[in-house]
Amino acid sequence: MNVAVSPEALLSEASAPALHEIVLLGMPQLSLSGLSESWLLKDLGHRHWMLLARLAGRAVPDFRDADGAPVYAAFCALSVKDADFAALGENDRLTIVSDISRVSRTQSASRHRLSVAGKPVGEVELVSAFVRRASGGGNHTVARVALDAFPPPTAPRTDGLASLAAELRAGRRERHFGFDLHAAEAETSAAFEIDPCPAQDFNGAGFLYFSSFVAFVDRAEWHFDGRRAERATTLARDVFFHGNVDPGERLRVRWLAARRGEGRLVHRCLLERAGDGARLAEAFTLRAV
């Protein structure tokens, strides 16, 4: 159940529109161990999309390039921090406060603050870039595109996710989640192959949806951690996206490194296309086990 608030409460400054909503939690929003991260990411992905429309002054998020071809907001990175998903249960009222801003000509970042009865239970940041497919191309042939009708970009926060993602792509960061980012990635690292289901894992635009990447990491964790933590919950997670697959293509989750102790499991995974080894995403996760 979604509880609407007045339109006046939804808007902050014009360059960073906000949404404030209360969700009554039930089975669709919950998992075995509390708040469902899969549901949450899908819901926040939709909020991000709607906030982009609001930022552009549109009623619906229908974006097109100069040739009339559809343009989509593909997620480049996501970050979950300070999460206490295990504390949430049936009939809790989850408050979600979301805002968005442009950080470059093609990228936008949204932040979603989560609370129950005034107590913070997590924060999620999403960074997206506008992309379009090449003519006749599939999900391997997308390119970034800049759109007009938006306010000028603001300077990205130096401690924000967009800046972190840029550092990682440029190789300027030494460590993340305690892992040495310059350590060689052994070709013999354990791998878990997945055959994504078009009916379950792809979105309406035909892309493997960003929340599916996270679900695949959790499946790999269940496999490689020896099925030892059926009620594991996310405390923090960063995922950086690099590519996508077409329906019918398989992917691999490589278990690059992990540490376990004192009720915590930390791991680093690489997702790649099985056919050509192209890098799709890198995920860093801290879980309570």
From TrEMBL:
InterPro entries: HotDog_dom_sf, LnmK-like_bifun_acyl/decarbox. It comes from Ancylobacter novellus (strain ATCC 8093 / DSM 506 / JCM 20403 / CCM 1077 / IAM 12100 / NBRC 12443 / NCIMB 10456) (Starkeya novella). This is Biosynthetic protein, Pnap_2097 family. SUPFAM superfamilies: Thioesterase/thiol ester dehydrase-isomerase (SSF54637). Transmembrane segments: none annotated.
